[in-house]
Specification:
The structure is a homodimer. By secondary structure, chain A is an alpha+beta fold. Chain A folds into 2 domains: 268 residues, Beta-galactosidase, Chain A, domain 5, CATH 2.70.98; 443 residues, Glycosyltransferase, CATH 1.50.10.10. Chain A is 32% helix and 25% strand. Chain A is built from 18 helices and 29 strands. Chain A has a 9-stranded antiparallel sheet. Chain A has a 5-stranded antiparallel sheet with strand order 7-6-12-17-16, with no helix packed on it. In chain A, a hairpin with a 2-residue loop joins strand 27 and strand 28. The longest helix of chain A is centred in the middle third of the chain and has 21 residues. The first copy, chain A, is globular and about 90 Å long.
């Protein structure tokens, strides 16, 4: 099936959503699917991975200048959107090859005018962006293309690039520095055009442009190709030189070759990643479109990056890496690109010093990973993440200081990688130390009362962020136990180069922690209370709680939110724990908890649906899993994501939901797992699909797997 | 000096404040200083001690029907306030004898009309209220007095007395039951009048009245006396009978004898309580007026009552007993009425089961006393004590569940009593058990981290209620240590009848707790941080923080209040700790902390000034103590108390401030203390006063003490 989505017709209000939906990216940049003539107010962006900058209290990734900026003039009139209503308009995304395409036509008294573009963020050379632009008319006219670099760009929280200089010649050469660290940012842009035109340099405010003047010829499009290269002093010793090299090399290769090389990388990736769902084209498209997003934002080129929670779609959530990566995206990469998975884990290992610094700051030992991790593990999360709609005041939130489960998620991710790839080298490469430091962190946050024989973890936020500062969140405690067990195991296996006495003492501590940490038990109805006192909260329905809102933008959680004193939760919490530790519980208990918590879940996070879906498959109920699968897979295809919080843009893509959709398909519907060292499937296919097939890597061997309602096969690929 | 205050002239807006300022009481009832003709909207009340009733979510003390209700008619016209502007008006309080007096005159075309009343809540028979009422005119006129029982009374949160029945004859007999527990409430009222009048019974809506018709005679007042008796099934097996007995007896005694007996009780009390301040009449009046309030509300008659935080002035704060009693009022009674002090402590001993129930409810051992204690130790404090002015929603507060320092205050009160009276019988009478259970409670809330060698108390509210859910509040932790030490001591002294092994184990536990509990130390500037992380809060000035208010009624504390994330505190906290444990610290440290915290204190509680004043005396700076003394002593004389929270009346008297004023005079200015078993004074007299003299009891011996700037004397009284 062709991997194409498109949007037909023009709706000027859709610019924010379409920018996400038609995003292209190559792991270094994400380019929003906005139109070439769009200025900052319509949210175009070339979002750069790994370069952060702080303006006032906001530290967020840097957007590159908009080197795609272009518009056309015919007979002296501008033809651009949204100013002039088009006769036809269509944008398309070939998500099989990461190509954005646009086609617009306008009717004027003398005839029809058409603009077509096609752009890529090269997968072959990630510092390269290429765009083809074609103008045609069915009459002879004087026409101009204006194209170049727009320095007046969209930033969520103010300007990051200052003191820029531009040389506006055949090559438009841009240089600037970031505010905070003075990182040099360099960009070059040039065009190739047919010979029968005149090219001059013009400037329009902050836009530095080529003006290409030509005469249109009926039946023949006028075509230019833009080459855009960039680099920064963060990754290149001499970014001016390296950007120039990329530009030169790509011009030498030429448009066709550049495109071929780009597409063959995509083909190679898809060969490992494609999941075919037979019997349901919609689901097939949604799932593979989700995988496209994961593939577009994976930092294959770098050794110091992971994937931000909103991918490379913008500056929302500060371009930071959350637990989303380890808990929701990692499996896809472990199964289809183990080398990329290794990089994601390595990012966490390399940022261990940042996590240790954070732990020390709060008076703990070991490693307390950043809730919102930027480079070096710096925690970009603020103490004030929500604005009170009633007073306009920032509200103290505790995501950064109390969501201690983050460190466990990272250990969990590493262990998933180890179990599936068998690549134990990562343990010697810092992984063992990381596990040990995370275990030490959890040991240091345990508290014990004199009269109890168990340890507690008090004053935390679990996955459900609506309930702050709770005690003994069962997810958090169970994850801590998991970390203790893993740490004791790797120490026993001799992975860390420490003295025997130190080793013995650590093992004793971790085993004591694992043995005595309180894991809340199911009550007489089989329900596991999410935290101490959860069962005493008001049991109001979701509809009741929603009806108490005085303002549809008000925060549900915090100290006084409508959900805070009720059992209504934001997202899967106990259900997430049950997913990870299903073997600890009977099917009956799992089933009771699913049914208890689902109606009490607002699903206010895109991470929620996936956990409910996966667990539904585990209890053999794919019918319950199905709508949550579709919700996850369609997170970036539908219009339903929260894009605005008041006047603040919080939209973007949802790679964790994309990763969850993959996990549901492969681990839920197909039921893939390892039993006694062997791959096996426990299919739980919903009636809506006939068959599902995909390839995965397990311990460096690739397998082809096919699962239908009555059989399945697992075949080695040679 | 006469003990009289008065208010001259009539201001109709002053009814709420004057009701408090001219309050009379006898420990069983408090009668607000409102005018006889006032109906419910002007807040008259006969507030009854010890009878509580719940309406919806509000459990508050019961107001008796208004049996003082009276007004007069002359020539068919009503003469009553505020309807008809008076020619002159004056109310007075003889606070030496607990007598409220009122005198009003009106001018009409035919001449002048005068109404005079005088009322007491009998100290001799606490179930008796007596009022004299005189009407005169300087012309002959047809006049009527309407007087009886107004059943339409002021209640803060709805009606408490239901199904009442009235017999409206010579004796107006009222019976009703409370909502919640069906407690029977009985009241009888009758009048004595001169013979030349006609008396009939009338009813005006909810008012059941005698109409006394007579002809006025110039130069001669027409006089009646009202006798009012009451009782409830809470204290009498047959309240109808016992109320009738009181009425009969008082009529037999007659007005003069009733008044004589009442006044001689007051004289006796004053003989022990009077504090004479020479050289400053204003301070002398303010202080003794404060003592009057304490004397008016002491439950000498009962064995199961203590003193509510607003005395008997109304239903504010649910008529409940707070730590105010032990920390601020108790010393006055220990020094002047040790038997009454014993009753106040005994109330806590007797409510130990309630405190143990509360501890168990929260999962703790031992005794967690009520933050707002009603009968039996029931905690009347709500989980929601504040209304958000922006949303109108109740805000979750933690006064009830996290203000754990309450139990220590009670132990502290008992130990003060023991130390000063030498009456160790209270230990055998349940006191030892109480101390042990409080210590057990603190032991059960200690937590320890694996890597620390000390215990912590986390997630509490200290005296400063603006900062919720803090860790290691130094006041709380130091008080817990104190309780551990006291408990270990009484156990070592053999006060509890338990096995040796149990005793040893408890002693070991308490001594371990005392030794290892974290008491935060002064920092490099000598400042003791109020709790973990206090020093990292914003150091905004009080004026800055006040300027951030968007609504002058908004709550400063809670999760998002203007003070919450700053160092601005509501009331003395570290300073309270330093007062109680001054011997643990150098004068320099005490002085630095006083100077550091005072400008950061809003003094949003009437408990605050007293602690600052006392500590200023301890560091030999009575000049700094003086304004805080005046503020405490004048708490109920000035207009500055917070009386309204939005539309809610939260006014009333401030007996804790009154008690604090006494402590400042006696323990601060006079510097009275016990050293090596001997009374001694360490005078710290402010320049505003010349001499201070008073009597106190110490170990059953009364002493007369006189302190001037250059000498002092302590003399035994034989």
């Amino acid at each position: 099936m062709d991997k194409i989505i498109y949007d037909n017709g023009y709706d000027r209000k859709a610019y924010a959503a379409l920018g996400n939906r038609f995003l292209i990216g190559n792991g270094l940049v994400g380019i929003r699917g906005t139109l070439e003539e769009y200025t900052a107010d319509l949210l175009p962006a070339i979002n750069l991975a790994g370069v952060y900058d702080k303006v006032e209290n906001f530290r967020e990734p840097v957007n590159l200048p908009n080197a795609l900026y272009s518009y056309i003039k015919v007979d002296g009139n501008n033809y651009r959107l949204p100013d002039l209503k088009p006769a036809s308009h269509k944008i398309s995304l070939d998500y099989g090859h990461g190509i954005f395409m646009r086609s617009s036509s306008w009717t004027c008294p003398r005839g029809n005018i058409c603009l077509e573009t096609r752009r890529i963020a090269s997968m072959d050379d990630v510092n390269l962006i290429v765009m083809e632009l074609k103008v045609s008319a069915d009459f002879h006219a004087e026409a101009e293309i204006y194209t170049g670099i727009d320095t007046d760009i969209w930033d969520l929280n103010g300007r990051h690039l200052e003191d820029f200089s531009i040389i506006n010649e055949d090559i438009i050469h841009y240089e600037a520095r970031t505010h905070e660290e003075g990182i040099r940012v360099v960009m070059d842009e040039t065009i190739e055009a047919a010979s029968d035109c005149e090219i001059t340099s013009v400037r329009e405010d902050g836009r530095y442009l080529h003006r290409i003047s030509f005469i249109t010829r009926p039946g023949e499009a006028f075509r230019i190709v833009k080459y855009i290269s960039f680099d920064t002093s963060k990754t290149a010793a001499d970014p001016v030189c390296s950007s120039a090299d990329v530009l030169k090399r790509s011009i030498t290769l030429g448009y066709e070759e550049v495109m071929d090389r780009h597409m063959s990388v995509w083909d190679r990736l898809w060969d490992n990643a494609d999941v075919e769902i037979k019997g349901n084209d919609e689901a097939n498209t949604a799932l593979n479109y989700s995988l496209y997003h994961l593939m577009s934002i994976a930092p294959r080129h770098a050794d110091n990056l992971s994937i931000p929670a909103r991918g490379l779609s913008g500056q929302t959530y500060r371009g930071a890496v959350f637990w989303d990566t380890e808990m929701f995206m990692l499996d896809f990469f472990i199964f289809t690109e183990p080398d990329t998975a290794r990089k994601l884990i390595k990012y966490r290992i390399d940022t261990l010093p940042g996590a240790m610094k954070k732990a020390a700051h709060y008076g703990y030992k070991g490693a307390f990973y950043a809730w919102e991790s930027q480079e070096g593990g710096f925690d970009a999360c603020s103490d004030y993440n929500v604005i009170d709609v009633f007073t306009g005041r920032p509200m103290r939130t505790y995501f950064k200081d109390k969501q201690v489960h983050i460190s466990a998620a990272i250990v969990y991710g590493l262990c998933r990688y180890l179990d599936w790839t068998g690549d134990m080298s990562l343990l010697d490469d810092g992984g063992a130390e990381m596990i040990m430091q995370c275990a030490l962190f959890y040991l240091s946050i345990l508290v014990k009362s004199i009269f109890n024989d168990y340890y507690e973890i008090r004053d935390v936020i679990g996955p459900d962020e609506y309930h702050e500062r709770v005690n003994n969140n069962v997810y958090t405690n169970r994850m801590a136990k998991y970390v203790f067990e893993k740490a004791a195991k790797i120490l026993r296996e001799g992975y860390l180069d420490i003295s025997d006495s130190e080793r013995d003492s650590l093992i004793e501590g971790f085993e004591d922690g694992a043995k005595h940490i309180l894991i809340k038990k199911p009550d007489e109805n089989g329900i596991i209370p999410q935290f101490d006192g959860y069962e005493q909260l008001e049991d109001a329905s979701l509809a009741d709680v929603r009806s108490r809102l005085l303002n549809d933008k008000e925060y549900w959680g915090g100290a006084y939110g409508v959900a805070s004193d009720t059992r209504i939760i934001k997202q899967a919490d106990v259900v997430t724990m049950l997913n990870l530790f299903a073997d600890d519980y009977s099917l009956d208990t799992i089933s009771r908890n699913w049914s208890y918590y689902e109606p009490r879940t607002e699903h206010g996070s895109s991470l929620s649906a996936g956990m409910y879906s996966l667990l539904a498959c585990k209890i053999g109920n794919p019918g319950m899993a199905w709508p949550f699968f579709l919700k996850s897979a369609r997170a970036d295809l539908s219009e339903k994501g929260k894009e605005w919080a008041g006047l603040l843009y919080i939209g973007g893509t949802h790679p964790a939901a994309a990763g969850a959709a993959y996990m549901i398909a492969v681990e839920g519907f197909a039921g893939l797992s390892v039993k006694n060292g062997e791959l096996t499937c426990n299919p739980s296919l919903p009636k809506e699909i006939e068959e599902i097939s995909f390839k995965i890597f397990y311990k460096q061997q690739q397998y082809s797997i096919r699962v239908s309602h009555d059989s399945y096969s697992i075949d080695e690929i040679n």
